[in-house]
């Protein structure tokens, strides 16, 4: 873009052969990137006899694999578990991370900086270090193998709090002061006045939290033991043990785990890309 | 205004509650701590306390059945004497040392050129970004299938079509680690590309205009303007991806399910060793000591970032 800015308008229309080569290479690279996904979808539409065929487009596409995987029931259950867990954790993060971020950005009280540093310092602690104490805690409180057990470690995050604090700092104090004069209480001011002013940040936080929990693997693998409580990644991971190795069925399972995020991406593409940029620059 | 509304409030009901007697300032402080109450409990109980507990457990011998027994630094001594630990240590750094530079160079090249492309920009960007949205458990299967020997595996299938020698991929200790690393890079590439594009766009175009007026060539502009001004973005991505590779687990576990970390521990990273020590062997104290080592490594990497940033 920068090269374009200084060139004369007449030159802007001219396309150099170098640009065509660059464009073609970028497109080819992009197509290579999605090849594994294309093969996954292609195989999920094939019968077991056709999977050795390297052709991407199945001769006679069939939805039989989807019907058989979904009618199994277990897979559907994992799907529901993942959706439920990721949704609840997302709502919790949007609520609490915003509330803490807002408090740290807009209230003045002794200890504010200390609380901020304390929360920020938890970014340094890797999850792997906490799982053993969490496991112990869960077993003592009977949280092992429950939904709450899967969800509790992620109900608030330092990353989300930091992101929201950065954004609330850009909200002018006058807005909040005006609401205060109108006699609103502080909770209403935060929820009704400040929150709508930072919707881009909220959508970024929500998308990240949902995606992160939808694909989360390590902790759900540790905390769940009964098959009914598996999340989709944990269920998929042990899929073959029961299915022997039926590649077309496994690819169908993998495709079903991928389709929701692809749909969300296609619908929210602009928000997601902007969200990644925001998080990257602020973080 | 606020005095007026206050006096109206006070004039209304006769009795004043304790709350009404507080000054506006005090009320706000009380609100602040009310907002923070639950989060403080959360961070205290689910972040800080477990951290200290992990340090403590690393000094104990504990199998979940009998009470934990204090053993001092015995776990650390055992770790240093354990050849598997050193193999794992080496693997973890192999992921880092190959993964981080490779993924950053590729993603920077893509971002640098993609940023200038106007035609179908969004579509091409989406192609690179899509793998980032997948889950490692699902993609682990896809890549394992790709890596199978003929007639199942796609990659070996294509190699045989073109008459090229077959590859062992995940089945040989020599090639397994690289075979796991490639999907890990593949999955993270789109994220890095988007962050790099954001960084490139944050460079004011006046810098480029000035350089052009001064008669600098493309290469000089790239070296003197683009690279230095992109430094914060690059450092962020170096640290972000380093931490990611040092903590690699999902890809390895899902591509070596039958023998996690195999063949012959050739792909086992530190986090997988922690997982097995804790949840297959139930040596909780030893596993906690390994997490302390991981924590230290990550801390050093993060501090190095701060140091590089400060030098700027």
TrEMBL record, chain B:
Please give the start and end residues of each transmembrane region: 29-49, 93-114, 126-146, 180-203, 229-249, 287-309
Q: Does the keyword Cell membrane apply?
A: yes
Checking InterPro entries in the record gives:
ABC_transporter_permease, MetI-like, MetI-like_sf
State the compartments where it is located.
Cell membrane
Its domain of life reads Bacteria
Entry keyword set: Cell membrane, Membrane, Transmembrane, Transmembrane helix, Transport
Q: Which residues form the ABC transmembrane type-1 domain?
A: 89-305
Signal peptide, first to last residue = none
Q: Provide the primary localization.
A: membrane
Membrane topology type, per the record? Multi-pass membrane protein
Q: Name one Pfam family in it.
A: BPD_transp_1
Note whether Transmembrane helix occurs among the keywords.
yes
Which family, according to the similarity comment? Belongs to the binding-protein-dependent transport system permease family.
Q: What is this protein called?
A: Sugar ABC transporter permease
Species of provenance: Devosia algicola
């Amino acid at each position: 873009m920068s090269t374009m800015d200084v060139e004369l308008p007449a030159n802007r229309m001219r396309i150099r052969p170098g640009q065509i080569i660059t464009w073609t290479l970028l497109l080819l690279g992009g197509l290579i990137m999605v090849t594994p996904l294309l093969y996954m979808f292609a195989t999920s539409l094939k019968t077991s006899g056709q999977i050795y065929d390297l052709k991407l487009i199945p001769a006679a596409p069939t939805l039989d694999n989807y019907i058989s995987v979904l009618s199994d029931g277990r897979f559907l259950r994992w799907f529901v578990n993942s959706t439920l867990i990721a949704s609840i954790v997302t709502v919790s993060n949007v609520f609490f991370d915003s509330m803490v971020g807002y408090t740290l950005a807009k209230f003045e009280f002794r200890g504010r900086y200390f609380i901020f540093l304390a929360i920020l310092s938890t970014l340094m602690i890797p999850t792997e270090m906490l799982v053993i104490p969490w496991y112990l805690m869960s077993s003592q409180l009977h949280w092992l193998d429950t939904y709450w057990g899967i969800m509790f470690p992620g109900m608030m995050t330092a990353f989300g709090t930091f992101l929201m604090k950065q954004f609330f700092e850009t909200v002018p104090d006058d807005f909040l002061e005006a609401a205060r004069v109108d006699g609103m209480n502080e909770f209403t001011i935060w929820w009704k006045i400040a929150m709508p002013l930072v919707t881009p940040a909220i959508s970024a936080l929500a998308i990240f939290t949902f995606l992160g929990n939808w694909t989360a693997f390590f902790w759900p693998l540790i905390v769940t033991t009964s098959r009914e409580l598996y999340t989709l990644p944990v269920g998929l991971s042990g899929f073959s043990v029961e299915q022997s190795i039926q590649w077309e069925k496994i690819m169908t399972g993998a495709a079903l785990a991928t389709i929701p995020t692809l749909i969300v991406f296609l619908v929210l593409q602009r928000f997601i890309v902007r969200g990644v940029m925001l998080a990257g620059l602020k973080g | 205004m606020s005095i007026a509304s206050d006096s109206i409030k006070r004039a209304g009901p006769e009795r004043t509650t304790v709350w009404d007697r507080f000054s506006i300032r005090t009320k706000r402080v009380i609100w602040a701590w009310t907002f923070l109450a639950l989060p403080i409990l959360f961070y205290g109980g689910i972040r800080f306390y477990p951290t200290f507990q992990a340090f403590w457990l690393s000094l104990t011998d504990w199998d979940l059945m009998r009470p934990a027994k204090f053993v001092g630094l015995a776990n650390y001594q055992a770790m240093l004497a354990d050849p598997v630990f050193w193999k794992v240590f080496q693997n973890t750094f192999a992921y880092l040392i190959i993964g981080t530079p490779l993924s950053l160079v590729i993603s920077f090249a893509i971002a640098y050129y993609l940023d200038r492309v106007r035609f179908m920009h969004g579509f091409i960007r989406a192609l690179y970004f899509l793998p980032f949205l997948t889950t490692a458990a699902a993609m682990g299967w896809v890549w394992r299938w790709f890596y199978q020997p003929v007639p199942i595996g796609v990659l070996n299938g294509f190699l045989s079509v073109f008459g090229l020698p077959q590859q062992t991929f995940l089945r040989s200790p020599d090639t397994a680690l690289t075979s796991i690393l490639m999907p890990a890079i593949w999955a993270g590439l789109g994220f890095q590309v988007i962050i790099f594009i954001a960084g490139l766009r944050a460079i004011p175009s006046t810098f480029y205009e000035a350089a052009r007026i001064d008669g600098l060539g493309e290469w000089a502009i790239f070296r003197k303007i683009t690279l230095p001004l992109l430094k914060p973005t690059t450092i962020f991505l170096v640290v972000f991806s380093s931490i990611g590779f040092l903590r690699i687990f999902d890809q390895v576990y899902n591509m070596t399910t039958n023998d996690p970390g195999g063949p012959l521990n050739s792909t086992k990273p530190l986090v997988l060793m922690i997982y097995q020590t804790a949840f297959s062997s139930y040596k909780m104290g030893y596993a906690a000591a390994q997490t302390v080592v991981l924590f230290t490594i990550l801390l050093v990497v993060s501090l190095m970032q701060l140091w590089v940033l400060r030098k700027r």
